[in-house]
């Protein structure tokens, strides 16, 4: 089994676990009066991540030396690993409020512990690092650039402004 298959497999298992965790947390949040904002764009975020993995697999497997590592692969790999630590710090800090969706519980203030003391949206930083660094480990430059740009556009133009506005409105009626 190649290093690429091991890493890709581990990341996919991690994603499926996160979807399970998000589903479980969503039930908890909804039971406390929470509601979802931005459900109409969520399918595009899921699609972006699905096509990221397909693009990565396609780009890596179709070149003349498939599955080879970049000569400097350890640098993006280290950033990728650090991003995973930050991801789980985010999940732990938010507890049952962590989700892949935008779920609002009226009157509940945003979390300001853990990495949220320093950054407003650290989990989005994790995703940005991941979408750039994972392909760079395997010299998949097109995937790294394309999905970094698409992710930045979705986050900066749609997701973060909607989340910020929704949190403000839920806490300042």
Notes on the structure:
There is one protein chain. The chain contains 5 helices and 2 strands; from the N terminus they run αβααβαα. The chain has 173 residues and is mostly helical. It has a two-stranded antiparallel sheet with strand order 1-2. It has a single domain (3-171), classed as Four Helix Bundle (Hemerythrin (Met), subunit A) (Up-down Bundle), CATH 1.20.120.1630. 69% of the residues lie in helices and 3% in strands.
What's a quick, concise take on this entry?
This protein is mainly alpha-helical.
CATH topology: Four Helix Bundle (Hemerythrin (Met), subunit A)
Helical coverage, percent range: 55-70%
Beta percentage is: under 5%
For the largest beta-sheet, the strand count, sense and barrel status come to: 2 strands, antiparallel
Keywords: Membrane, Transmembrane, Transmembrane helix
Subcellular location: Membrane
InterPro entries: ICMT_MeTrfase
Pfam family, one: ICMT
């Amino acid at each position: 089994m190649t290093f690429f298959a091991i890493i890709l497999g581990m990341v996919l298992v991690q994603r499926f676990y996160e979807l399970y965790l998000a589903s479980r947390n969503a039930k908890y949040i909804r039971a406390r009066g929470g509601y979802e904002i931005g459900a109409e764009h969520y399918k595009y975020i899921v699609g972006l991540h699905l096509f990221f993995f397909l693009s990565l697999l396609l780009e890596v497997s179709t070149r003349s030396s498939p599955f080879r590592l970049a000569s400097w692969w350890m640098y993006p790999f280290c950033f990728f690993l650090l991003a995973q630590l930050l991801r789980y710090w985010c999940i732990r800090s938010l507890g049952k409020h962590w989700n892949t969706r935008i779920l609002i519980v009226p009157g509940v203030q945003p979390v300001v512990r853990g990495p949220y003391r320093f950054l407003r949206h650290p989990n989005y930083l994790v995703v940005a690092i991941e979408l750039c660094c994972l392909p760079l480990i395997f010299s998949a430059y097109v995937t790294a650039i394309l999905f970094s740009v698409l992710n930045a556009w979705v986050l900066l133009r749609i997701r973060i402004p909607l989340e910020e506005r929704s949190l403000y409105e839920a806490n300042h009626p």
